[in-house]
Design a protein that fits this description.
By secondary structure, the chain is mostly helical. The protein contains four helices and no strands. It is elongated and about 45 Å long.
Length: 118
Amino acid sequence: MEYNTTHNKKTQFNLPNTIKNITFYFIKQHYNKYLEDRELETIPKDEIGSVVDQLYTDKEQELKKYIRGTMRKNFPDYDKNFTMKTTTEEIILEMFEDPDFSKNRLAIEIENYQEGKK
C-alpha cells in the first residue's frame, strides 16, 4: 500500500492536507480490507463507530510509521528539512492527542465515503 503525493506538484504544497490525504489513504486501504475479510459491501452504519475504534487502536503505531515513511519516500529531503519534519511530528501528535475527535472524524469520513458508493 503506497500513497504518492507527486501528483499534486502543480498545486501549492500544504503539509496538513498532505498528511490528511496520507491518513485517509491508509484508512481507506484498511477499510477495504475489513470489508473484503468479512465479505461485506459496506459497514452497517450502527457499527462504524466500533469498527473505527478498533482499527484506530490497533493501527495507531502503524499509521504513525506510515505517515513518516510516506513523507520520506515522497520528499527526499524530509530528514534534512527541519521545518517539514518538525511540523509533521506536531501534526501527528495533534492527531493522537484527542482520540475521540479523531475517531469521530474518521467515522464521518467512512459514512460519507459509503454514501458516495451508493
